[in-house]
Write a structure and sequence with these properties.
Elements: E1 15-19, E2 46-48, E3 58-61, E4 67-70, E5 79-87, E6 92-98, E7 109-112, E8 117-120, E9 123-128, E10 134-141, E11 146-151, E12 154-160, E13 169-172, E14 178-186, H1 192-202
Antiparallel strand pairs: 1-14, 2-3, 3-14, 4-13, 5-10, 5-14, 6-7, 6-13, 7-8, 8-9, 10-11, 11-12
């Protein structure tokens, strides 16, 4: 994570979480926040080789397997969520934050459609991934109702998004058949250059 600081960018501002999945579920932001595998879900993701060939440094998800996190971004703030994913050909939910009291997916929900298109809160974008390959996806949302969708460091679309008032937890890999490598969340909007630099430094 320190590598891309040498590129002249500082990505630590308003960073809520960076889960590296390097053999554990610790938040590399080092604030004591830890993702957990809740017992209420069927099974747990397994550690596999990551996009760079490093063993036990990514998570493989199957049906009903997901990682629970604390709420990563504020309900009434701008935010950025980014991750490296490897998705098999199917509908997939990559991340959702929600109100744990109601156990309903009431927050920001990033999904992949059967056509391989990135969607947010049910709004389908023009951003398309390649199945069965590592892809970098980022969603930059604003509280005023717009979100930018990036695939592999390039802005693909601007779509409408929703605002939420009560978010208490997040789920990574919800309804995903595939793998997740690094996962980041910021409580601010990264700009296009920051997204491109993050992709370039991490690919």
């Amino acid at each position: 994570f320190e590598y891309f600081y040498t590129m002249g960018e500082d990505f630590t501002g308003d960073l809520a979480a960076h889960y590296e999945f390097a053999g554990d579920l610790l938040n590399a932001k080092d604030d004591g926040t830890t993702a957990e595998v809740p017992n209420s879900y069927a099974g747990a993701p397994t550690y596999v080789t990551d996009r760079n060939g490093v063993e036990s440094s990514a998570l493989a998800f199957g049906a009903g397997q997901r990682i629970e996190t604390p709420a990563l971004v504020g309900a009434e703030t701008n935010y950025t969520i980014a991750m490296w994913v490897y998705v098999e050909p199917t509908n997939a939910t990559l991340y959702v934050d929600r109100n744990s009291g109601s156990h309903s997916d009431t927050g920001h929900k990033i999904t992949i459609t059967s056509a391989g298109l990135v969607a947010l809160d049910g709004v389908v974008s023009a951003g398309k991934i390649i199945y069965d390959a590592w892809q970098f996806i980022a969603v930059v949302g604003s509280y005023d109702g717009e979100a930018e969708v990036y695939v592999n460091g390039i802005k693909q679309d601007i779509i409408a998004c929703s605002a939420f008032t009560t978010l208490t937890e997040g789920l990574i890999g919800s309804d995903l058949v595939g793998k997740v490598d690094d996962f980041w969340a910021w409580s601010r909007s990264l700009d296009a250059k920051e997204i491109a630099d993050l992709y370039a430094a991490e690919k």
